[in-house]
Amino acid sequence: MPTIVTHAAVPLCLGIGLGPRRIPPVLLMTGIAFSMIPDLDVLSFKLGIAYANVFGHRGFTHSLLFAFALPTLALLFKKTFKVGYRRIWGFLTVSLLSHSVLDSLTTGGMGVGWLWPWSGERFFAPVQVIKVAPFQLAQYLKPNGIAVIQSELLWVWLPGVVIMLALIALRRANNDAISSPSV
Ligand SMILES: [Zn+2]
Fold first, then answer.
1. Which of 9, 41, 105, 152 has a CB 3.0–4.6 Å from the CB of 160, allowing a cystine?
2. How far is the CA of 153 from the centre of ligand 1 (A)?
3. Displacement of CA 4 from its chain's centroid (Å)
4. Residues near 82 by Cβ (< 8 Å), separated by ≥ 6?
């Protein structure tokens, strides 16, 4: 996995980029939570469940079914989010799905179980560029941990911030165009 904080980069950059009118704070916060939820499966290690098991790490919580089902359930709370169904579902699905996509881009671990429950196969993206993060926090102080942070900054945060700034610039340009129509 990339570090848990880095998983939040996708909803955070996208949400701030799109602005609070399109992505209200509650939806943004839920998106951030959704981007981290799949890694609750690390608890399986404590329960003695093997990594390769579908209920192990990167198993069913990283599947496409989970990524589509959980945002669908969230629609039950539509009123809380103060935007339409499509916006809620779209933002939460992108947030949740981004987790397994980022995991599939990492250089280690077992790949993600995208096809659960139809298959227990684990998948990686065609390229792996993000250095896999260690599980123990203390490891981050070692050279390898610092390399992980550098790799996440380069491959996740940098593109995320660029997209965020581009979206903000686009919004400003649109607002300007609306508030000052050409004569
Ligand atoms: Zn994960």
1. 9
2. 17
3. 9
4. 24, 26, 27
Q: Could you tell me the pTM of the whole model?
A: 0.90
- Kindly tell me if the per-residue pLDDT of 182 is higher than 70: no
Q: What are phi and psi of 75, to 5 degrees?
A: -65, -20
Contact by Cβ (8 Å): 116, 63: yes
Mean residue pLDDT of the chain comes to 92
Helix (H, G, I), strand (E, B) or coil at 120: coil
Contact indicator for 30, 82 with CB cutoff of 8 Å: no
Say how far apart CA 19 and CA 78 lie, in whole Å.
Answer: 19
For the segment 159-171, what is each residue's pLDDT rounded down to a tens digit? 999 999 999 999 9
Task: Please tell me the distance between residue 126's alpha carbon and the centre of ligand 1 in angstroms.
Answer: 17
Answer with the residue of higher pLDDT: 146 or 104. 104
| Angstrom distance (rounded) from CA 137 to CA 89 | 33
